[in-house]
Write a structure and sequence with these properties.
Elements: E1 4-17, E2 20-33, E3 37-41, H1 48-55, E4 64-74, E5 80-82, H2 88-94, E6 99-102, H3 106-109, H4 116-128, H5 132-145, H6 151-154, H7 164-176, E7 182-186, H8 194-211, E8 214-219, H9 222-225, E9 231-236, E10 239-245, H10 246-251, H11 256-263, H12 278-283, E11 306-321, E12 327-342, E13 346-350, H13 357-364, E14 372-377, E15 380-383, H14 393-396, E16 397-400, H15 414-424, H16 431-444, H17 461-473, E17 479-483, H18 491-508, E18 511-516, H19 519-525, E19 528-533, E20 536-542, H20 543-548, H21 553-560
Parallel strand pairs: 3-8, 3-9, 6-7, 7-8, 13-18, 13-19, 16-17, 17-18
Antiparallel strand pairs: 1-2, 1-4, 4-5, 9-10, 11-12, 11-14, 14-15, 19-20
Length: 563
């Protein structure tokens, strides 16, 4: 590796409010050299993002307080600057130009009312002091370097007109516009499809090799850094618990927390095997994963009775209309697909973003109208193009949404949110009875009864996911649609939620459609896997067969892209 680029020594960061101090980073030591890719790995709340934002001084003071330590950045001239003590003008000169950052969620990091071109041109003019005409040429060149399709047209598009992967490439182009010495990547591939994720990682590595910059790559997923990073630092509750080369971390982890992160991956286990969680390893340093499934087994799918049947389903979205409002151009999101789900079965639905997975799920639960075909439940038609969705089935079929935080009302306490379906459908008229049902359901999803009067912001991501599961299951449905319900969770929280879903499915005897872009997760939880691509079914079959011996070239590419 090259000369030192960034040196963090004994950094202690706390947040203070009303004479209460909460330490989030404790005596952190970390370095990044020129030409090095260092991964900073840990779960949500471990202090990763606080560390990265402290480097660029992006957290206001107060509430942040730097109790101890230093963050030293080494200029090409050899000058050392302590970023914690640097003036505002010095920090402004470094941000974006010498140290750049790719944020976790590109849609919130990009301005929705400005085109992608306007945003990157502004950045180029600021950092490189070019004219607007020269900045436009440079913007197109940057878009080409990050492999954005048709860059001349892409600069005139707004963020919402691009896919998640393309937006992430725009963020990378903006970060590279200042030709930085250090690039900080804060969870840049979280919740991206495996193929898009792989392409982003390859792109970052190519850019790093071309420019010789250092990269600090922040993630909660050790799988992502396996073939990407040179060195891995593992952070747990604000403290470094292990640091080593990537090869050594994967082959011989020493700390129980690192062992847990590696062992929690669902792709390592057969269907029905209870996944280990972090607490198993922390409570017992000699913990070994049981070699055989424990006594909790998922519902067996020996029943051949068809529960749900989808026939020739087509869903289109209008793109253009004429003067009279008639649709002249449309986009086909779901294209003449047919399949069925048996009683007691879990069907995994996998495919890239934009393939029609969520649209299909929403149509089954009545949130999306259909243009052609039909959806039948136990032989009775519940949705056709010319007939409104049968409201009776809104009790029987429930949906677990992708983002638990946005699907919960921030001003409604958890008890009210979970009991609301019982009130709306007049299933339990008594308020006391509803409360008892909610507390019973909270206990089933392993949350204490005192959560009843708390609000969504008081819970962690994993706990909020349990809450939306409780809300979906309070109706005692016979069919549940899980829409990317574990995609953005830390690996250990993901393991907890998957264990919970298996246990609840076994005890409550419901069938499920499990929508995800992660084939390793869908292999673990599903009886059969259905692969979608551009609105069509590419392949459907038993989970192990589709995963281990895929027939479709598209499925083969998805599996090949797995980290």
């Amino acid at each position: 590796m090259g000369a030192p680029l960034l040196q963090i020594k004994d950094l202690t960061v706390a947040f203070e409010k009303e004479n209460i101090s909460f330490t989030v980073v404790k005596k952190l030591n970390l370095s990044v050299c020129r030409g090095e890719i260092r991964a900073l790995v840990g779960e949500s709340g471990s202090g990763k993002s606080v560390t990265s934002m402290s480097i660029l001084q992006l957290i206001p003071s107060p509430p942040v307080s730097y109790k101890n330590g230093s963050i030293v950045f080494y200029e090409r001239s050899g000058e050392a600057i302590n970023l914690l003590q640097a003036s505002h003008a010095s920090i402004e000169a470094i941000r974006g130009r010498k140290i750049a950052m790719i944020f976790q969620e590109p849609m919130t990091a990009l301005n929705p009312v400005l085109t992608c071109g306007e945003q990157i041109i502004e950045t180029i003019i600021l950092h490189q002091q070019l004219s607007k005409e020269a900045a436009i040429v440079e913007a197109i060149a940057l878009f080409k370097s990050v492999k954005i399709n048709d860059p001349e047209k892409a600069i005139d598009k707004y963020p919402h007109e691009l896919s998640g992967g393309q937006k992430q490439r725009v963020m990378i182009a903006m970060a590279m516009s200042g030709k930085p010495d250090l690039l900080i990547c804060d969870e840049p591939t979280t919740a991206l499809d495996v193929q898009v994720q792989k392409s982003i990682l390859i792109l970052l590595k190519e850019l790093q090799q071309e420019t010789g910059m250092g990269i600090l790559f922040i993630t909660h997923d050790l799988n992502v850094v396996a073939s990407f990073a040179d060195v891995v630092t593992v952070l747990y509750k604000g403290e470094v618990v292990e640091e080593n080369s990537t090869k050594a971390i994967f082959e011989n982890p020493t700390h129980p927390y690192t062992k847990a992160l590696l062992a929690c991956r669902p792709g390592l286990y057969p269907k029905g095997h209870k996944l280990p969680v972090v607490q198993d390893f922390l409570s017992n340093s000699n913990y070994k994963v049981p070699p055989t499934p424990n006594n909790v087994t998922p519902l067996e799918t020996t029943c051949n009775d068809t529960l749900l049947e989808v026939n020739n389903l087509t869903i289109r979205f209008p793109i253009a209309t004429n003067f009279f409002g008639k649709v002249t151009k449309s986009f086909t999101a779901v294209d003449h697909i047919s399949f069925d789900i048996k009683e007691g079965e879990t069907l995994g639905l996998v495919g890239q973003s934009g393939c029609g997975k969520t649209t299909l799920g929403r149509s089954i639960v009545g949130l999306q109208s259909i243009n052609e075909g039909s959806i039948m439940y136990k032989g009775e038609t519940i949705a056709t193009p010319n007939k409104p969705y049968n409201p009776h089935y809104k009790k029987i079929i429930q949906l677990i949404f992708q983002d638990p935080y946005s699907s919960l009302h921030p001003r409604m306490c958890i008890g009210a949110a979970i009991s609301e379906p019982l009130l709306v459908h007049q299933m339990v008229p008594s308020k006391l009875e509803r409360k008892e049902r909610v507390i019973e359901m909270l206990e089933k999803v392993e949350l204490p009864a005192d959560c009843y009067n708390k609000y969504p912001h008081e819970f962690s991501g994993g706990q909020r996911q349990r809450i939306v599961i409780a809300r979906a299951l309070i109706m005692q449905p016979k069919f549940v649609i899980c829409d990317e319900s574990v995609s953005a969770l830390d690996v250990s929280v993901q393991a907890q939620v998957l264990n919970l879903l298996n246990d609840l499915k076994s005890s409550m005897q419901f069938s499920a459609l499990f929508i995800t872009h992660d084939l390793s997760v869908v292999k673990y939880i599903s009886d059969r896997i259905m692969v979608m691509n551009m609105g069509k079914i590419e392949e459907i079959g038993p989970a192990n067969m589709v995963y281990n011996s895929p027939k479709s070239l598209y499925t083969q590419e998805l599996i090949a892209a797995l980290p």
